[in-house]
Amino acid sequence: MQRLDLRRAARAIAFAVFAAVVVAACGGRARPDTVAAPDVPAAYDMTVIADKDGQFEVQGATLSEEDFKGALRYRRDRNDPVKTILLKRGEKQKVTDAHIAGLARIGLELRVRTFLQEKEGKEIQEIRTTAVQ
To answer: Is 89 helix (H, G, I), strand (E, B) or coil?
Structure first.
């Protein structure tokens, strides 16, 4: 009688382990059909290009992060605010972490939505930040 209970318990444990392995193996590839599409606008108010040393090329001029903030503030003061900015890779310069961090700070301080396209023709991603208090 006790052997029967041990066999039943062993089968139950083996089945549970097998089920866990099957779920774990298939779980990485399973994607829900209800994933929200990214909210990427069709057009951007301003497109900037990554330049050397974490700087940005804006309409042909190379600007530091602070100068770029000043240009955005100037447009806001003229009642022509920028709401969306797209950062693209330059011809000779890749988008670096310094570019992303600088644009994230600009977006957070000036309440601008910032987007990133690392390679031409690739996916556009939104740069999202939260304030640390």
So the answer is: coil
